[in-house]
Amino acid sequence: MFVGEKVSVNIYCRIYRSMSKPFFDCCIHRQQDLKIENLKEKNQDLEETIKKLNQKKIQKNSASENKALFEALFNYSDVDKRFEDVKKLTTEKGLDYAFPSCTNEKHTVSIQSELLSLESYSRKVDESRELFLNVVELAATANSVTTN
Fold first, then answer.
1. pLDDT digits (tens, 9 = 90+) for 50-81
2. Who has the most CB within 10 Å: 1, 20, 131, 139?
3. DSSP states along 128-146
4. Residue 50 CB coordination number (10 Å)
5. Which whole-number Å values give the CA distances from 76 to 43, 54, 80, 105, 141, in the listed order?
6. 76 — phi, psi (to 5°)?
């Protein structure tokens, strides 16, 4: 091997490394960019899945809360206790609608009610509200007289 040959190999290797480094860096950055893009897409898909699951949870909770309210409204044997049971499940505005002529006086009439069936239909109004249409069948007893 000649001295001049060794020098030219070293120069060639240095030139090759200096020329290939940007190429490999570019490939590495491109791979990282693709990985980042892929992770962003997966993250977006997961966020959408979470929103859908949360919405199902809200709808399920809404339906169960609706049912609980109607059971409190129409399954009772003590009229005065009924107000307290419903008060736990609704807002002040809801109480005003459910009991428009509410008084603080105790009832002297014996009234009982039984919810025989409840059909609920719902429609989502927006992200946080749901509208329900309820069809009820009940039996009410006042002073030992029952109506269906």
1. 777 766 665 568 888 889 999 999 888 887 78
2. 139
3. TEEEEEEEEEEEEEETTEE
4. 10
5. 49, 33, 9, 18, 10
6. -155, 155
